[in-house]
Prior knowledge:
By secondary structure, the protein is α/β, with parallel strands linked by helices.
Amino acid sequence: MELLNHMALFVEVVKAMSFRRAAEANGMPISTVSRRISALEKAIGLRLLHRTTRRIELTEAGQIYFERCKRIVDEARIAHEQLGEMLAQPSGVLRASLPVDFANIFLLPLIVEFGQRYPGIRFEFDLTPRRVDLVVEPFDVAIRMGEPPDSSLIARQLARLPQGLYASPGYLRQSGKPRQPADLARHECLRFHGPKADTWTLHRGNESTQVDVGGRFRANSVGMLQRLARHGQGIALLAEAIAAQDVAEGRLQRVLPRWQAPPVSVYAITETRLLPAKTQRFVEFLRERLAGAPG
């Protein structure tokens, strides 16, 4: 990087044909400009400029070096300007890995809104439960639910979504409404497949309890558990944001409304903190919208 800075200063000196004018343009002492050009010549092993008390002239090597350096400096300037334009109006292909059910149930209308706001961005989405390799695979960002694993990747928390218990009106008419968490042990509970699937932790203010639950259905798909609950097959533990539309349209009802499960975190995972504008705007947009999610 120091060499590149010296090259850019050399181009300024040659354009101005004066150490003094180059120093004034860059806001530094003449002695600093002279020292840096001398360091550049020492690094190259050739004299680039003939210096006299009145003027400077390019050597033969200096002329060749100037032509090359000027192209490099101009390319860097153009690249910087183009990135500035991208920041003002993001464009290009945004490649994102999304959790299947959360994307289909909740993110889809947000993605449509984001696309309308930024018409210059095109999209490639990979809906998969697997953890994609952001270092090797060509993804700009991965949206994930749950705590991220410790790694060298950058995790930005977008939201913490409250969770509650939900069942269909038909199921509750047939099986009765639980009055307290312990009643869940006598109900069909629709469980997400995992190491703690058969134990639900619930909170009410500062009070906390754990309930051993069971039932006929376990699945690794929140969407399937939600649909099973709609069809009267039991009580499901769902993020309030995901269940909100079903509740509004009468397909599901809240069970034990004063009790909540621990919130589920939503993260944007990237390989680096330095994001192109398309990715930065996407992450910012989701954080803004998820902050206003139901619940």
